[in-house]
Give the backbone structure.
Amino acid sequence: MNYLLGAFKPACNVSITFSDGKNRKQVPMKKENGQTALVPLFHSQDTISGKVCIDPYQGKKVEHNGVKVELLGQIEMYFDRGNFYDFTSLVRELDVPGEIYERKTYPFEFPTVEMPYETYNGVNVRLRYVLKVTVTRGYSGSILEYQELVVRNYAPLPDINNSIKMEVGIEDCLHIEFEYNKSKYHLKDVILGKIYFLLVRIKMKNMDLEIRRRESTGAGANTHVETETLAKFELMDGTPVRGESIPVRLFLAPYDLTPTHRNINNKYSVKYYLNLVLVDEEDRRYFKQQEITLYRLKEDTSS
Amino acid sequence: MIADGTEDEEKWLAAGSAAFKQNAFYMQRAIDSNNLKDALKYSAQMLSELRTSKLSPHKYYDLYMRAFDELRKLEIFFMEETRRGCSVIELYELVQHAGNILPRLYLLCTAGSVYIKTKEAPAKEILKDLVEMCRGIQHPLRGLFLRSYLAQIGRDKLPDVGSEYEGDADTVTDAVEFVLLNFTEMNKLWVRMQHQGPARDKERREKERGELRDLVGKNLHVLSQLEGVDLDMYRDTVLPRVLEQIVNCRDEIAQYYLIDCIIQVFPDEYHLQTLDVLLGACPQLQPSVDIMTVLSRLMERLSNYAALNAEVLPYFLQVEAFSKLNNAIGKVIEAQEDMPILSAVTLYSSLLKFTLHVHPDRLDYADQVLGSCVKQLSGKGKINDTRATKEIVSLLSAPLEKYNDVVTALKLTNYPLVVEYLDNETKRIMATVIIRSIMKNNTLITTAEKVEALLELIKGLINDLDEPEGLEAVDDDDFEEEQNSVARLVHMLYNDDTEEMFKIISILKKHFLTGGPKRLKFTIPPLVVSTLKLIRRLPVEGDNPFGKEASVTATKIFQFLNQIIEALPNVPSPDLAFRLYLQCAEAANKCVEEPIAYEFFTQAYILYEEEISDSKAQVTALQLIIGTLQRMHVFGVENRDTLTHKATGYSAKLLKKPDQCRAVYACSHLFWLEDHETIQDGERVLLCLKRALKIANSAQQMASNGQEGSAGSVTLFIEILNKYLYFYEKGIPQITVESVESLIQLIKNEESMPSDPYAESLFASTLQFMEFQKQKGGAIGDRYEEIKV
């Protein structure tokens, strides 16, 4: 029985370690089962190097048709579950076909890997990087081992970062002018701005600023758009009068934001909007949505 | 409906308080376990209770006070956190993550307070940030309380002069800026309350606003307590900014309260130095603002200030406080077209009191005030508003009270013009006030000019005013009292110089004669008396060694008197005129003015004949005539004869016998003047006495016929006996011992008749007198010795 069982059990333990694993920063990532795990963080152009260790179980030998390690960049659409689109695929052959009797370690290295896209976990789409080790075997099936990576890419400070300024209104009812200090914010940024009330003829209850994420997947007729409100931030309480200006100061740090992604591999886009919502006493909502660009700024100190 | 409302409110408050307590409890627990994150979470939840719109200010205040207490705990916790190494800057950011604005801002203020205390950033930056961020609350009630919280926590952290938060970058200017900004915003919110909600709730809203006003005013109080707000700062920054806000908010309640607030919280000295600015704002206020009270209080304060600190008076002059106030009031009245007359008058009244206090020596100021008042009143006709009238009376009384001297008031040329606007009733009251003041202070009014002015003032008492028909007439008692006071007043008008005095009297005459019949009987006698006094003071004619023609001669005055008295018979008081004529005659006698005296007597006689018909009055009048005539020595024989003849004639014509008898024996005196040998006619004396006896006889006969009480006639005999004795004593040859003796005998016979105690005692004392004269000895004693009883 033991033998038989052993036949179905992987004959060996495969592990992947990174050469700079001790120093490399790890970030939490939500796994599919809902738990969060710490995952090493990489950036584009990083060299990914490490070791694959194949350790056969006691008294077993591993017969194989070759060992390889792949670095995969995959996009997974949830409505098309199981289908991955690999936009990056790098392979290193680690061993020629043969047999492994005892613990064997293969160093590997992907020097300065181009990882153009960031890891993303959305509503309908997921983009992930993974190291995949395959011990190819014949009929008994290959042995596979995965190691997730998180990739974050820093963006430079934008050259042009205009403020957003706009006057909107409903004729003879409400005229406001709003101003956000920038159109591009980094993820720990703070949105500063002002709302000027030029005409107020409705009785207002409050005014909120929302951050909305719009994720669109697919293309053409199959486009799926999903909008989430990530932040709802009350800016004003009560009815202002003409001439009032209400300050805006919204810290982005507490919210779970990603950079704006545009047309990632023709598969999906993630865009962010600031939605200014005025609610009147009869709970009617008046709003104006403005897109903002989020980017990840290289921080000197943390994350 | 209303009961339900309050009940509901109680319920809401209870619910709010419960939720509040619960979260406060969790917050405390988090604080105890040093859990910043939870402390923030629960405090935000706790503060969310303040987001309610259902509570009235009063109830909301309850909740706010609880929050205030809890936030103190949180602040201490924040402070500890920073000591434990938590960056205050991060803390300041952290609290801003709260999604709801109201809790967020309360937390922000609390964290800001800690931030300032750590001095990691200039206080002004933080304060400025806080006051700016608080704009997010546009709901009046919630905003007011939030900002009030901000003011409270900021209060001890202002970079005031001498404060620990003062630094190179932080100056008192920043402190002022902060408070002003907060004040402005609070006021805007407060004003806005007025315009929110349905119109039918206006009253309730105004009440609520009243409850909240101190939150707004508190800011001004804070400003006034800043060490660094000196006069320059106040004049250049604080006042203009505050006034700008007050003017621009165009809200009646706010303007009234805040202006008053300024006046009350800032020092008088500042007001004095910034009067024009402060006053400049007044005309710009809403017309409905009760500017009158405000300005009155200002002037009251300044008056008190001047009263308590005499050394500041020069400043009042220096800044021309008076003219500024005067101008301002003018402008205010101009700006507020429908200002009730009451307000205007009250304003002037206050101004007048102010100037009387501050510039007692500047009568021209007081006069200016009255002048402006007149201008204001003109074109409005008589004032009907009783309160306004009262205010005018108080306005007019002020100078009298202040100077205790009507003479000063008389210098105010506009004074009578103001009086002109009063209704008649009030004019009279005012006049009595004036007279009372004169009486109280014994003020002598010495020039004709002033007298003229004074009379103009009290015209109400002297003349019948063109009172519309049908108005209730003045009460008789009141009238009498008023006129008596006028009469008393006459004696206060006095000048040692006869010429001037004559002028005064002439003026009085002019006015009094127009006063109508009812008044004359009150006003003429004092005038005559006063005139007679003047005559007595005149130098005797011919005594003028300088040959200077005196413009005021006795003759002139007597003519004058004649004119005055002539007025009297026209009114139904001939008695009075009669007496006055006799008085004048006597005065003329003293001045040796025979024709004049004669003239007066003639007048008196005419009156006697024509006007005095009552028998009792006749008796009295006759006695007066005889008495006066007896003393007259100025008449020549002829005139005197005529007059005495007339007098005896009247006597004999009296109605009742006893009266006749008495009058006739009294006439006997007319023929015997001790010191004037020309008037010693014993023959006629005897004649009179005999005639008296005859009348007494016939009276007795009539009595015995039962026509009259018999007792009287004996008395008459005894009285005549007394006359006999008198003349006998004087040594008139015609009065013989025999005649006296026979008279005594006659009386003794009569005594047997039914007795009359009065007659008996009179006779007894007469006999006693004779005995006494005998005892005295000497020439008289000898004469009495001759009489045998």
Notes: The interface with chain B takes residues 203-204, 206, 231-241, 244-247, 249, 251, 253-254 of chain A (CB under 8 Å). The helical segments of chain A are 2-8. Residues 2-8 of chain A form the longest helix (7 residues).
